[in-house]
Amino acid sequence: MKDASFKPVADCAVLVEFGTIVDDDTNRLVIALDQAIASSNIRGVNEVIPGMVNILVNFDPLQTTHVDIQNAVEALLPLNQQTTATGKQHLVNICYEAPFSPDLNDVADARNMSVEAVINAHVGASYRVSMYGFAPGFAYLSGVPDAIQVPRKTSPVRDIPAGSVLIAGPQCLTTTLIMPTGWSIVGRTDVQVITEEPDKPFLYDVGDHVTFRRVGISDLAGDVQ
Amino acid sequence: MSTARFRVIHAGPYVTFQDGGRPGHMRFGVCASGPMDRTSFAAANLSTGNQADATSIEVSMGGLALECISGAITVAICGGDFNINCGDESYSSGVVTTINSGQQLSIRPGKSGSWCYLTFAGHVDVPQWLGKTATHALSGFGGGVLTSGQEFDILNSRAQSELNGPIPAFQARKFGGHLRVVLGPQEQHFTAAALKQFLGSEFTLSDAYDRMGVRLKGPSLRFGGALSIPSEPVLKGSVQVAGDGVPTILLADHQTTGGYPKIATVISADIDDFTQLRPRQKIRFHAIEPKSAIMLARVRAIERRSYLETLFQ
């Protein structure tokens, strides 16, 4: 069990950090604390936002203070990771065919393997929703196999279509908006992370699990051109 | 029930529909959006008899010109020092007036201030996302960005010329370009010299200023530690420093996470005043303790409440 450190942020948040290196154990602690805070009833908490190695507890300064929030969170520690809810399983379509996978060849070259081997590694892995970040519905999926991990590109490429499946390091991401990205584009999905359902506007909860199912272009739902 | 209809003659960049914002979805990558200057926004709404968080138009320095094409409605304009023409009359901002069918309303930047709010006595009928009309800049979801030629309706519109007149200013606002911050959460990534420069130097707002944030110009802040950190949640007011040593202050439409170290975070009591500065204006950072920041938030809440209460007269 790693110790948590606490940093006051402005007048309205406390950053609770379990480490400085991204790894599975640290992210599981973040998810466990997220769930523990959700099932507690800490006065004055507005919003809790999980990151890769830390979690931001956003509070109302008219109701509470950094010190009270820290004390309330410390009372939830140590976390029992065994009791962490396992998370829902999601199976989502991915198409690795051209023109949806412009960077597959570069990933294969960088890792000295065939394109088919890259695809098999990517589609065979199980991913955990570690956090959402940057833009609406951008779920960071941890679990890209070591063999196909590649760093970010040195400069971003503009106007990547929504539904692109990207990888960088151990992270995989499916995009929801047209965006620039420095990540490698390996495929296209038809999953709608922004659901348009008022009761559950985002498909995944942090801590859920995602696996991909390989499909052809004609099997992708909706307009993915 | 009456309806007033408007046509957009001209809308500069970053002129958007905003309600009180969409808090509570940061964990799904959605920042709260909402008005850059929350007090002026609330004052404009209350002055037209609306709820404080009703949908309004946030006008940028790009300006806005509208034509009332049907109906008659009372409107308020409050925020930075903007010049207003309504029909044959001219005003400065901080005013309630009533506009009739066939009249034009133009709002252009005056001597100071970056944003002002146009509110309507009635219900602005624009799209919602996640139950709110605040425009989310990155996606365009919500009420949206105003564009020339666009038309929109105000439902349940009220023409209440008895409300016409000036809106009193928020006297507690006496921001002199000193921005109070709590250091961190990654101040330890910077050299001692960089921290000293951060707190001892003047910074200038650059032209790279929009609803997402503003890049500053000033001394380059050197890192002692890592140039990037694992992606972590950020807030409105986060002062993040990119690899080139240039600080950016994140604002209402900030991305929800970032991998750049944050040297400090601006306290919420100072952010709204800060957003009314213009490019090329200067600021200094002043570090305070977290518990002082809490106290200042509470003082500001009381000042703000008593100001807004005077608008109910």
Protein model, in words:
The complex is a heterodimer of chains A (225) and B (313). Chain A is an alpha+beta fold. In chain A, strand 6 and strand 7 (139-142) form a beta hairpin. Chain A has 2 domains: 5-83, Gyrase A, domain 2; 89-219, Cyclophilin (Beta Barrel), CATH 2.40.100.10. A 7-stranded mixed sheet of chain A has the order 5-13-6-7-10-9-12. Chain A contains 4 helices and 13 strands. Chain B is of the alpha+beta class. Chain B has 2 domains: 3-166, no CATH class; 178-310, Beta Barrel (Cyclophilin). In chain B, strand 16 and strand 17 form a beta hairpin. Chain B is elongated. The model of chain B has no long low-confidence stretch (mean pLDDT 95). The A-B interface holds A 7-13, 15, 20-22, 46-56, 58, 61-62, 65-67, 131-140, 177, 198, 201-202, 206 and B 23-30, 130-131, 136, 138-139, 141, 181-182, 184-185, 229-233, 235, 237, 255-258, 265-269, 290-291, 293-294, 296-298, 301.
Quick summary of this structure?
The complex is a heterodimer of chains A (225) and B (313). Chain A has 225 residues and is an alpha+beta fold. Chain A has helices spanning 24-38, 66-74, 104-110, 115-124, and strands spanning 5-9, 13-17, 45-50, 54-59, 89-94, 127-132, 139-142, 157-160, 164-168, 171-174, 179-181, 184-188, 209-214.
